[in-house]
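We were asked to recover a plausible sequence for a given structure. The inputs and outputs are reproduced exactly as logged, with field labels preserved.

PROBLEM: sequence recovery
POSITIONS: 581
GIVEN STRUCTURE:
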């Protein structure tokens, strides 16, 4: 064996034992008569001691070791003269008798330490080196723990892990598919699944009444910090259930994961909020409720005072940033520039400073008296020392813009503690949303979501007001997962396809297999899918999912380590019957 112990295992009780360790050289220190080497594996660090007086040849060999050399050592565990309380192994060291060089190493392109000098692209190019860093290994260890505990919990309540295909039929709804050409059926293509949605519904028809899968999904869409072209879902479905059954079951899963993986226990039931209320109060269907700063509708107070920007707006909305009246003009100008960025798209920002002496100063004093501003402050619940920030325009755009500003202010004021976790169920989403460009309805979630029973009559008279029997779990401004009670009746599913603009032929060609299955005794069913990457990143207190994935893609969807995607050889294309310009 290459080792009898790991580099994170030895303690005072091992003193006097002869051990063999193997790992990577983290760093070495030549102190003349003594050379010390820190040896690392994924379990920790152990200090190695080489004494020039005891074995000069061995000590000289140790001095030649570079960072990331792979070595094996044998020696006696002894008590350290200078203990290191910051290291679990800091009470002991190895007095080395034998040193074997297993492999040398080039100088790494960046420092393999928690605080590295490598940028994102460089670290992704050498991801196999980046993963050696303890901070990355801890994130992957958290991911492993979450996946393991998910399996344990779901297995304990009779869920069955069932694999579904990766080569499936392309459907144009939703995000773009990744497609795979078929050599045996030239001119035809598979698609990689955006989710196992239709297959898990078919499993309910099949009598597998509790299904789950930790599964790869693929969506060809623009990337950001919390999105990758391939991602992992905890995908679940249940038969003979209503919405309340789903919420209770998977609230239990999330509580279990936080308790087992983070040592955090939530008290009581997770709060719930309707979609309409979430948009009115926070302008988001995944609001961060760790802090207040709720929206205040100032439209009636702000309009008809001669300020054209407000007078012409559909809505005037504001937020109160507590104790932020100390913001300087330079800071307020920076906020104005921030909301004007293309990513936010606001035309400007109005502020009202409620000074400690009770006076009010705004950027629109020309149009509003101090009495007017006092009315704003009273309506918004502002107090001396607070800052009111106001945006206006179309309702939907203004809500989105003010939500971004609210989150930005939450960051600036230190209100978004990454180790404070606030879950929230969002319920009663709209079933459909109207798309002006295509002049038709699109499914808010997907075409298989059931409408609320009490809204069935609206399907034919006012489809835009139909609510979905759908639910999302949000936490800290992130959507951890979402799902719905599904349609299980062919007639209702066919009507849904009609609303979405499918012809009978299109619906049959794309989803005929599912509607046919509904004619063979489909049970009522529903489910949910959690984004494992987002869930683990949120539990780890991070905004980006990238470091919680072993080999992620960059923002262009490229794997810079293996240089993918790449061009195919001409003979491969010919075999597939594909021509590329």
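RECOVERED SEQUENCE:
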């Amino acid at each position: 064996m290459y080792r009898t112990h790991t580099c994170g295992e030895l303690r005072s009780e091992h003193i006097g034992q002869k051990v063999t360790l193997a790992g990577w050289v983290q760093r070495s220190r030549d102190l003349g008569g003594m050379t010390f080497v820190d040896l690392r594996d994924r379990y920790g660090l152990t200090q190695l001691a080489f004494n020039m007086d005891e074995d000069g040849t061995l000590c000289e060999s140790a001095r030649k070791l570079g960072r990331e050399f792979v070595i094996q050592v044998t020696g006696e565990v002894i008590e350290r003269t200078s203990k290191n309380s910051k290291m679990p192994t800091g009470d002991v060291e190895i007095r080395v008798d034998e040193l074997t060089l297993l492999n040398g190493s080039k100088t790494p392109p960046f420092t393999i330490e928690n605080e590295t000098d490598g940028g994102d692209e460089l670290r992704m190019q050498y991801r196999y080196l980046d993963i050696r860093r303890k901070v990355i290994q801890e994130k992957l260890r958290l991911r492993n723990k979450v996946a393991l505990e998910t399996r344990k919990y779901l297995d304990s309540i009779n869920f069955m892990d069932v694999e579904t295909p990766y080569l499936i039929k392309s459907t144009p709804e939703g995000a773009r598919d990744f497609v795979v050409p078929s050599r045996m059926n030239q001119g035809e293509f598979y698609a990689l699944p955006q989710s196992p949605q239709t297959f898990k519904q078919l499993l309910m028809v099949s009598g597998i009444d509790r299904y789950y899968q930790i599964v790869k999904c693929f969506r060809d869409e623009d990337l950001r910090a919390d999105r990758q072209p391939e991602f992992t879902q905890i995908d679940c479905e249940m038969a003979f259930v209503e919405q309340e059954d789903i919420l209770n079951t998977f609230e239990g899963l999330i509580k279990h994961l936080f308790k087992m993986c983070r040592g955090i226990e939530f008290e009581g039931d997770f709060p719930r909020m309707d979609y309409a209320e979430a948009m009115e109060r926070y302008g988001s269907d995944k609001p961060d409720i760790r802090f207040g700063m709720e929206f205040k509708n100032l439209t009636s107070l702000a309009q008809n005072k001669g300020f054209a920007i407000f007078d012409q707006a559909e809505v005037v909305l504001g937020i109160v940033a507590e104790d932020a009246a100390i913001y300087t003009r330079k800071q307020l100008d920076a906020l104005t520039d921030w909301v004007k960025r293309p990513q936010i798209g606001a035309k400007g920002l109005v502020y009202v400073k409620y000074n400690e002496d009770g006076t009010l100063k705004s950027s629109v004093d020309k149009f509003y008296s101090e009495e007017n501003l006092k009315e704003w402050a009273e309506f918004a619940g502002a107090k001396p020392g607070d800052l009111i920030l106001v945006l206006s325009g179309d309702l939907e755009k203004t809500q989105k813009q003010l939500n971004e500003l609210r989150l930005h202010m939450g960051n600036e004021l230190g209100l978004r503690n990454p180790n404070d976790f606030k879950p929230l169920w969002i319920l009663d989403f709209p079933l459909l949303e109207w798309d002006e460009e295509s002049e038709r309805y699109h499914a808010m979630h997907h075409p298989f979501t059931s409408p609320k029973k009490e809204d069935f009559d609206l399907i034919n008279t006012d489809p835009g007001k139909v609510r979905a029997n759908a639910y999302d779990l949000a936490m800290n401004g992130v959507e951890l997962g979402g799902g719905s009670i599904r349609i299980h009746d062919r007639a209702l599913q066919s009507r849904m396809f009609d609303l979405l603009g499918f012809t009978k032929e299109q619906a049959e060609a794309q989803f005929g297999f599912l509607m046919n299955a509904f004619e063979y005794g489909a049970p009522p069913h529903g489910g949910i899918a959690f984004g494992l990457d987002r869930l683990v990143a949120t539990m780890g207190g991070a905004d980006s999912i990238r470091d919680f994935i072993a080999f992620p893609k960059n923002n262009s969807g490229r794997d810079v380590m293996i240089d993918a995607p790449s061009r195919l050889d001409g003979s491969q294309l010919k075999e597939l019957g594909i021509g590329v310009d």
